[in-house]
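Q: What does the assembly look like in three dimensions?
Context provided by user:
Components: two
Sequences:
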Amino acid sequence: MPAPKLLYAQSGGVTAVINTTAAAVIQCAREHGVKVYAARNGILGVLREDLIDTSRETRAAIEALAYTPGGAFGSCRFKLGPADRERAHYQRLIEVLRAHDIRYLLYNGGNDSADTSLKIARASRRLGYPLTCIGVPKTVDNDLALTDCCPGFGSVAKYTAVSVLEASLDVASMAESSTKVFVMEVMGRHAGWIAAAAGLAQRTPDDPPHVILFPEVPFDRERFLAAVRRTVERVGWCTVVVSEGLRHPDGRFVAEAGGKDAFGHSQLGGAGPTIAAMVKDGLGLKVHWAVPDYLQRSARHLASQTDHEHAWAVGEKAVEYALAGMSGVMPVIKRISDRPYRWKIEAAPLDRIANREKKLPRSFLRRDGYGITEACRRYLAPLVRGEASPPFGKDGLPVHARLRKPRVAPRLPPWEADAE
Amino acid sequence: MPAPKLLYAQSGGVTAVINTTAAAVIQCAREHGVKVYAARNGILGVLREDLIDTSRETRAAIEALAYTPGGAFGSCRFKLGPADRERAHYQRLIEVLRAHDIRYLLYNGGNDSADTSLKIARASRRLGYPLTCIGVPKTVDNDLALTDCCPGFGSVAKYTAVSVLEASLDVASMAESSTKVFVMEVMGRHAGWIAAAAGLAQRTPDDPPHVILFPEVPFDRERFLAAVRRTVERVGWCTVVVSEGLRHPDGRFVAEAGGKDAFGHSQLGGAGPTIAAMVKDGLGLKVHWAVPDYLQRSARHLASQTDHEHAWAVGEKAVEYALAGMSGVMPVIKRISDRPYRWKIEAAPLDRIANREKKLPRSFLRRDGYGITEACRRYLAPLVRGEASPPFGKDGLPVHARLRKPRVAPRLPPWEADAE
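A: Here is the predicted structure of the complete assembly.
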């Protein structure tokens, strides 16, 4: 009889360090003598029985994987419905796991994924299949409940602070006769964590970013334009950071693009140019805007060492929890102290994480709503510390893992949804 | 009688390494016992007699300056008109230089600046003031004539190739159920050098970027959409890099924003979202787009070592040429060999650089117009090699120079244009 296997799957938007977690899972499981399969494209790969045997990857490849952005095995945006409505999906999942003697499922994602993990854990119990189901945290949005922070966030935070700093030096040097206002749009659909991270670049009130527009603070056009005008008068120029999730007081997104994703979220990506146009029209100032979009969450070349260590640790602990049979939990980061920064990993129940969203606490927002407080800075500061870049090749480009990703021979008929 | 002084001024859009040149000028002049003044905000600072005494900066500050993005002394977009129409401007410039016994002018900029340097050189001769005028190359656009490449370009090239590589890993991992097409807009008003640099990320035909849209190739919507569709069918996703200067066959910019800058150039910045919308509407695929804007030209954290060395060398040589009395020249980069990459600095006459624009040679464009050739790759490859990041502080952010920038006491009445 073959040894029980562990299945690792990636879900939702990827990060600069999700593969660090994958590498930790694979290495740690290997050390415990457990074979790791990875699902291609997350839960879709399980439904399709499209599984990758990671034991065929070299140790060097797994080490390189720890420094490679993106989701090496493919991720997905696919929402599993309620078990009573989508019984066939859950049955198929369990069938696939059973066919390959997979006893451990590690699902690496955000709060939607925590919910999915939980549903699979329940389905396995209901269907009498012994499965240990572990959620593994990951999201640039930093909005997971219970964990002090989320792997992926520290690196996008570092990217954002560094980019604001650098671009603002550019603006400062040209402002006398060119661009006076620079607007940078950052990710963060409902929570302003990434926008807040931009605040780390500001050391004095005249340093950038001068105005941060958070999704937590209803947008007030006139007050905003007044703040920009005052800054330009005082400093000579102004850097604005705007969250993609900025909303009008009535709840509408400032940049409403119209589309919806598989989870029913609106698709965004126009807050930056919208705000820039307001400044141009309202104040008659020359404006430039930037929307780094995926660049920010894939910027492994600027990854934070703290984030890298978190991502590795949750992968390692997830394997340990799995082997200890602790189903329905997620390894989360618990902060012990700010200065010096100390932390540990704890197990937290998935049902207290699933479908919840951690917003920026009120105490992290400056009274005027356009900046961060000292408490926020104390929280954020350790997360961007240290550099964990990949090695660069002789060609001047980062060296990323090239995996073989051999497919495990299927043992079941094709999945009906695909076969149709 | 005080020793003759050298005046250094920055002009036009800044780069990740223009301050490297500034640092080289200051250090090299110090070694020759020549005092360096810097004009605040380029030529405007000369007209206003707003000069900075760099001898008050510490050696450590100048060393940090070599790794600081932006233009430390301020740059400007201000076009000096023809000498016969704007005689007063030229007279004032020479008066200011004379008042401070400035005998060497080093003007660090692009082709507009080469033209300005030349006009000042001629005006000084006409007005009988002994001035040695040197142009110092700088531009992310890489479009200066005579020089093999321009300091500033290698770093934006590296930023672009790395960003395309990283973001594409993100897209690849999500494409199955999310974004299928990623569009990244890059700078380059009339010449597609930066767009071409994205091509360095492509090792095989299935690697990104799959389609590059150059300003040199008139845009054909249907042919473009067909290329994207074929790529998505073959690879599963598609990365498109589009130059801000992409044009329709009739010459109109694909993203016409309407404004004009001081040089009469159109202000751009919307080719990315425009192309993205075309893909969405034309092919019905989910699209994301990024516009890094100033982030790309200020990304000192990702600067290329080759670029850093070029930037230093032109600064050093500019001082040597100045002290040798070689007025009306620019130190340019001459390539000796591709492999191994060898180069030297030569003096080139400003009148053969001013107001010219070096476009991508036809031989660098793939026959289909959507990628680069092996010849282009051979040209670009050495320029992005090596990493010349600034040191990072304990706070996880790059350490930039903080200069004192003391103003030299004016000796003349205020400039009329400011006094009015």
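Follow-up: Chain B has two domains: 5-151+303-356+387-419, 154-300+374-384.
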